[in-house]
């Protein structure tokens, strides 16, 4: 991709997983519709994320504004916002500022990476393979407020691994992750409803 194409991809596709999928399918010579459908499947988790923000936003932010702000939800902005909402009221300006700075950082980092990436010949040598799992671990820790949260997280992780083990073909298209997330989120809602 050219620098302009890479930057435009980050302007239009505000999801790292979606970009990885798009690039993989493009390299394999896949169709644009395949990229779109794979992105929809992988990013269904944002439907769960935006739904779980409703109790915090419903009385404070107009539904149309909340719907527009849900475009900026990512794993990171969701975790930061939900952590913030534990001690502060939800406001449209907070979520808009969080989403905007995150998206601008995403686009700026893409530009910087596209310009300087050619100078790095071996990314494995830098040991960056830990960065993504470490980030998700940090986000999980931010979200844990009760002992039941830990059990739901462990249950969801085990469910994901069991599905991947029992149905290995599902590991390729991330269906096990989506199924485990839906099951784990449902369990979390049930447990939270009892408290």
TrEMBL record:
Pfam families from the xrefs? AzlC
Q: Which family does it belong to?
A: Belongs to the AzlC family.
Identify the species of origin.
Syntrophaceticus schinkii
Name of the protein described by the UniProt record: Predicted branched-chain amino acid permease
Is the keyword DNA repair in the record? no
Q: How does it sit in the membrane?
A: Multi-pass membrane protein
Question: Among the record's GO biological process terms, what is one?
Answer: L-valine transmembrane transport
Q: Which GO terms describe its cellular component?
A: plasma membrane
The entry's keywords: Cell membrane, Membrane, Transmembrane, Transmembrane helix, Transport
Gene transcribed to yield this protein: AzlC
Span-the-membrane segments of this chain are 20-42, 103-120, 126-143, 150-168, 174-193
């Amino acid at each position: 991709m050219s620098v302009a194409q890479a930057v435009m991809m980050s302007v239009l596709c505000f999801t790292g997983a979606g970009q990885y999928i798009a690039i993989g399918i493009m390299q394999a010579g896949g169709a644009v519709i395949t990229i779109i459908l794979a992105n929809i499947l992988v990013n269904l988790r944002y439907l769960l994320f935006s739904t779980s923000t409703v109790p915090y936003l419903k009385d404070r932010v107009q539904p149309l504004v909340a719907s527009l702000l849900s475009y900026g939800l990512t794993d990171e902005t969701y975790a930061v916002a939900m952590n913030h909402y534990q001690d502060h009221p939800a406001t449209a300006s907070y979520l808009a500022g969080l989403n905007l700075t995150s998206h601008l950082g995403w686009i700026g980092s893409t530009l910087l990476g596209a310009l300087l990436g050619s100078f790095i010949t071996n990314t494995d040598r830098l040991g960056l393979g830990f960065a993504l799992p470490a980030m998700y671990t940090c986000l999980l820790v931010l979200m844990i407020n009760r002992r039941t949260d830990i059990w739901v997280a462990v249950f969801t992780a085990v469910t994901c691994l069991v599905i991947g083990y029992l149905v290995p073909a599902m590991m390729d298209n991330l269906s096990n992750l989506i199924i485990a997330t839906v099951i784990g989120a449902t369990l979390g809602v049930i447990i939270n409803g009892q408290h």
